Amino acid sequence: MNKTITKWTDSDKQKLGELVKQYTIKNRTNWIQIAQIMKRTPNQCKTYYQVVLNQFNSKNCNTQWSAQKLVQLVTCVAIYGKKWELIRKLEFQDCSAEQLRQRYLLFQSKKQFRTEIANRILNCEQLHPEDFTQKAIDFFKYLYKIYFKCEKPIKNMDEIITLKIMNLNDEQIDVKLLIFKIYNSLPQQYKIQCDEQ
Questions:
Q1: What is the pLDDT of residues 149-166, one digit of tens each?
Q2: What was the pLDDT predicted at 80?
Q3: Predicted structure pTM score
Q4: I need a surface site. Which of 98, 144, 182, 185 has the fewest CB within 10 A?
Q5: Is residue 30 part of a domain?
Q6: Which residues form the HTH myb-type domain (predicted)?
Q7: Of residues 191 and 150, which shows the higher confidence score?
Q8: Count of alpha carbons within 13 Å of 94, Cβ hemisphere only?
């Protein structure tokens, strides 16, 4: 079933919530039946209900996700990769690994929102000296990719960043400053302003 993706209205949200109550028996929800009524795919209904409406198994994860919480999730993925169970144990004990995965997929699907969060990270996050290791390198590479919308690999990126980090003696380094210092120090051929995909 290939349904056209349309924006969820307030009445859609209310209707979905009512249908989930109606078609859930013994903790099993009939997403196929709900999808037929909603004129969407079962996966669209299930994902929207579990992630956006925050009706997942973990009670404390049911509150609206703030931008700060989403920044925290994006930062964790930048540092640890998509190791959802690890991220859950370290930072999001009140959420399930699946909810974190779905929340991140939703974040990735919204280009404008992704850029906004990237900007929040660039403007707010700080790195401490003990983090100036592979984590800092991975973090920069990730931010470079989403901030400059560039998928092309940068040759010698690790060496360039490591050298730049070693030359910084500040107790705390603002990531935005660090990124643009590193970016400005890159050879011209790496300063690629990629088109939006």
A1: 555 555 555 565 555 555
A2: 80
A3: 0.38
A4: 185
A5: yes
A6: 1-57
A7: 150
A8: 8
> Number of C-alpha atoms within 13 angstroms, CB side, residue 95?
27
Instruction: Label residue 32 by pLDDT band (50, 70, 90).
Output: very high
114 contacts 103 by C-beta, under 8 angstroms: no
Instruction: Tell whether 129 and 185 lie within a shared domain.
Output: yes
172 domain-assigned: yes
Give the domain extent around 85: 67-109
The total domain count for the chain is: 3
Contacts of 168 (CB under 8 A, 6+ apart): 132, 178, 181
- Within a domain: residue 181? yes
Quickly count: other Cβ atoms within 10 Å of residue 180's Cβ: 13
CB 78 within 8 A of CB 26: no
